[in-house]
């Protein structure tokens, strides 16, 4: 049975609870991962951020001339 058919077959209230549970799990994961990074010392320094900015390609718009 494909997952989509299983999902459509469960009660709407159960689907709502399942969706809210997944969103809550993701939110807690995002919050805890930030705290873990701070405790482990993996926070990006200003030097790291500057190196990242310099490594990104620069996009320069060129205006099209009328013919």
List keywords for this structure.
3 helices; 67 residues; single chain; mainly alpha; flat
Give a summary of the structure in a few sentences.
The protein is 69% helix and 0% strand.
What order do the helices and strands follow?
HHH
As for the number of domains, it is: 1
Principal-axes geometry comes out as flat
* Secondary structure tally, helices: 3
Sheet having the most strands: none
Distance between the termini: 60 Å
Q: What percent strand?
A: under 5%
Uncertain residue ranges: none
Mean pLDDT: 93
By DSSP, the count of extended strands is 0
| Structural class computed from helices and strand pairing | mainly alpha
The percent of residues in helical segments reads: 55-70%
CA gyration radius, whole angstroms:
23 Å
Transmembrane segments: 16-33
Keywords: Membrane, Transmembrane, Transmembrane helix
Q: Please, could you describe this protein's structure?
A:
By secondary structure, this protein is mostly helical. The chain has one domain. It has helices at 3-9, 12-40, 46-55. The model has no long low-confidence stretch (mean pLDDT 93).
Write the layout of secondary structure elements.
Elements: H1 3-9, H2 12-40, H3 46-55
């Amino acid at each position: 049975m494909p997952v989509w058919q299983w999902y459509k077959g469960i009660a709407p209230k159960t689907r709502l609870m399942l969706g809210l549970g997944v969103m809550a799990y993701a939110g807690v994961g995002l919050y805890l991962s930030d705290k873990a990074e701070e405790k482990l010392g993996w926070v990006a320094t200003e030097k790291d951020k500057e190196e990242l900015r310099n490594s990104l390609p620069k996009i320069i718009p060129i205006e099209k001339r009328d013919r």
